[in-house]
Amino acid sequence: MSIVVFGSINMDLVATTSRLPVAGETLTGEEFFQIPGGKGANQAVALARLGIPTQMVGRVGTDSFASELLYNLHNSGVETENVSIDETVSSGVAMIAVDDRGENQIIVIPGANGQVNQEDVEQLSDLLPEATALLLQLEIPIAAVVAAAQAAQKAGVKVIFDPAPAQPNLPNELYSLVDIITPNEVETGQLVGFTVDGEETAAKAAAVLLQRGVKCVIVKLGAKGVFCATAEEKFFVPAFPVDAIDTVAAGDAFNGGLAAALFEGLSLHQAVVWGAAAGALTATKSGAQTSLPDRFTFDEFLKERE
Asked: What span, in angstroms and rounded, lies between the C-alpha atoms of 258 and 272?
């Protein structure tokens, strides 16, 4: 059995500079990094590093980034046989400028991610009979996300959906296809139309999302913790206190930890704890996939905090 991740694969091109440029200005930067990213690929790597058999379905282009992206996934333990190479476009790229205060400007070129369609859903469908869960995000076309969720529901496979990057007007039909939705507080606010800034407002938002047909709502509240609600239970898990350096991919790590725990047969409460631990650990290192913990580091982190 395995977990299937259906989503984006990007190369992040990161430039650091003392301050961000204004329109028409050229600045001399400080450092440059090229880091594999994309929410789908991040979640796949998060799972594989925790020792979970993981299949990635998505697209890359035919450029030099593609081979590096595929190598990095494979090297992390992710099965990549179902990643298609699209000869019509570039691989997905995110161009990121970060200043000394941690503020950033990002331009995302979807490239091959924007071409994901029914063909990819059919490839995905072939993997579902051997899958326990399907992880979805929003860096590929929404029609493909809905079709993938429909295929998973038909196959009896649990759908774990991270509605990021935030889109306020998701198709109503998507909610009833989702077993677990995992927005952060900003994304939750955009989904429900009011500010979510703590446990009380998270509970109110969760009630709205449950009413729309989602079976389980998990609201990631950053350093405040995590709120979880189903029709049967509600609970809050405090955040693990860490010295956060960079929260990039912390949300993806959360989904990886959550899905890994469920794959291993743990309770929903314990799965949320695993998600919180994976997210906290990831925030202690910089970069996207470079910051995702391996199983030994993860187990030691949890053991020290029991």
From this structure: 6
**What is the token pair recorded at 134?**
């399907």
What domains lie within the chain, and their CATH numbers? 2-9+38-89+113-304 (3.40.1190.20)
* CB 288, CB 249: distance < 8 Å: yes
Beta bridge partners of 5: 56, 135
Instruction: Enumerate the active-site residues.
Output: 252
pTM: 0.94
Quickly tell me which residue has 């063909």 as its tokens.
119
- Plot region of 213 (φ>0 → left; ψ -120 to 50 → alpha; else → beta): left
The answer to whether 82 touches 60, Cβ cutoff 8 Å, is: no
CA angle 212, 218, 220 (to 5 degrees): 125
Grouped pLDDT means (10 residues each) for the chain, 306 residues: 97 92 94 93 97 98 96 97 97 90 85 98 97 97 98 98 90 97 95 95 98 98 95 96 80 96 98 96 83 94 87
